[in-house]
Amino acid sequence: MNRYYIEKDAEETTKLLASLHNTARNSRTHMARQLMSTGLYAGQESILELLAANDGQTLGQLATSLGVKPPTVTKSVTRLQEQEIVERRASKSDARQTHVWLTEKGRALLENMQRAIRDAEARALDGIKKKERKQLAKILARIDANLAAPAAEPKPKAKKKSGGKKKKKSAEGET
């Protein structure tokens, strides 16, 4: 392989990853717009989904489930509480812990929120066939796994065999 092809491959990879980055950004922006129509900010929907599945979680449990630090969840929960979508209650068994619960307003908001999410997903995948979606899901999962794995040592480049000409095979064997 000559240098031109290596540079062309690197350029295509750069363009592909830039496209992936732009698509992710556009997806987040579109999702944020859809959620704002319900009165939510991006990221708050994840907290509501967790509480809808298991109401009364602690801030620490929410942070762990979301893979973020507790202050991030605390800030989002505070905003949701100010909007009367969730409420905090002291733990009955441990006074140091606070549990977060959906309010009636929060439960009523869930349906609109889920509709906004479905609308955003439908728009994103419009015109993409089921088979293509499955392929995309597999490819994205591999990219995600590659990026999530610890950085490995670069693989050494294969050395070309030096010297001689290729051997020809004859009916009796190699010559």
Number of E strands: 5
- Compute the gyration radius: what is it? 26 Å
Distance linking N and C termini: 28 Å
Shape: globular
> What is the percentage of strand-forming residues?
5-15%
By CATH reckoning, the class would read Mainly Alpha
Helix/strand order: HHEHHEEHHEE
CATH topology: Arc Repressor Mutant, subunit A
What is the domain total for the residues? Answer: 1
Global mean pLDDT: 85
Largest sheet: 3 strands, antiparallel
For the largest sheet, list the strands in their spatial order.
1-3-2
- Low-pLDDT segments: 167-172
Q: Helix segment count? A: 6
Structural class: mainly alpha
Question: What's the architecture in CATH terms?
Answer: Orthogonal Bundle
Write up this protein.
- The protein is mostly helical and 175 residues long.
- It is built from 6 helices and 5 strands; from the N terminus they run ααβααββααββ.
- The strands form 2 sheets. A 3-stranded antiparallel sheet has the order 1-3-2. It has a two-stranded antiparallel sheet with strand order 4-5.
- It has helices at residues 3-36, 44-53, 59-66, 70-82, 104-124, 130-148; strands at residues 57-58, 86-90, 98-102, 169-170, 173-174.
- The chain is 60% helix and 9% strand.
- It is globular and about 65 Å long.
